């Protein structure tokens, strides 16, 4: 389980170190930095697939994403975007910076057109919740990486890394770097749901070829197949109960027509079942959230970005119960500005770690977090 999330110089997140629990709620006013903290988690997940540099480039490069307030570049320090996390077993941090100016070829053309891509200047993987010299397992400075072996001796990696490649993606190996491999696969198991589509053209509204689906797609396209998979390979009783709590007396049916699956909702007051094409946005969104949270393959970390959007107020209470139940098997981060959802989560009796973000002089901070309240954190050196 993750215990700490840290970020420096990302948008309004000038310097933030936050503790994490089993069930976390990130809240705050509009513009307080909730979406930025969500993006930090997504960026960290991208390192495991070598996509972090590209993701930052799509945001406009470091010039667009770096903290733009006072103290952006402390004296005698290079401009840097740093982000990392630490858990019970492993920690990881990365330091990204501005690439050097592009050189010129013999014919007067720049040697690269990708001069807006940030570079990975440093990375570190360590054991336990705090980075210390004794807990380091892998360390990268520029293109050079060294790994600690099973007896504690350091060895240099034979080949160098390119500035846009993460050591998590490039060096994870069951023989030479098993710790990197374990950490990479854990990060790859993280799930993010912030684009569950419920519009008129949403893929979930159409019958689709069904195949066993243990993980709901990020846009909810395979809802019917995921629902049937939970019935056959997960907790069918809990699935039905989640529907009944939200829509008393209702049942979900999956119809298979020549291999195409369609979800139908049968309600007690209607003479025929309702297909997904007819469902309201809120009803469809709630069914998608059930499929995401009742997965038969729970991830290590599940992040929900404003799951209450478009839900009827009567559905927020059942959603809180659904999220709290899922937190028994999965660490969950909920980003929300809904007091109703926060109250619903608190009413479940589950221990909630609330992270309320506020702005102070343009920078995001955690409300009431003093200097001694933040978890211990150290960044790797370049």
What this model shows, in words?
This protein has 382 residues and is an alpha+beta fold. It has a domain at 2-190 and 357-366. It is built from ten helices and 18 strands. The chain has helices at 34-47, 52-58, 62-65, 167-171, 178-188, 223-233, 236-246, 281-293, 313-326, 339-346; strands at 2-10, 13-19, 23-28, 80-87, 90-97, 119-127, 136-141, 144-148, 154-156, 191-193, 208-209, 251-257, 260-266, 274-275, 301-305, 331-335, 353-360, 363-366. The strands form three sheets. Strands 2-1-4-5-6-7-8-9 form an eight-stranded antiparallel sheet, with helices on one face. A six-stranded mixed sheet has the order 10-15-16-3-17-18, with helices on both faces. Helix 9 (313-326) crosses helix 10. The longest helix has 14 residues, at 34-47. The protein is globular. It starts with a strand and ends in a 16-residue tail after the last strand. The model has no long low-confidence stretch (mean pLDDT 92).
What keywords describe this structure?
single chain, 382 residues, alpha+beta, eight-stranded antiparallel beta sheet, six-stranded mixed beta sheet, 26% helix, globular
Structure at a glance:
The protein has helices spanning 34-47, 52-58, 62-65, 167-171, 178-188, 223-233, 236-246, 281-293, 313-326, 339-346; strands spanning 2-10, 13-19, 23-28, 80-87, 90-97, 119-127, 136-141, 144-148, 154-156, 191-193, 208-209, 251-257, 260-266, 274-275, 301-305, 331-335, 353-360, 363-366.
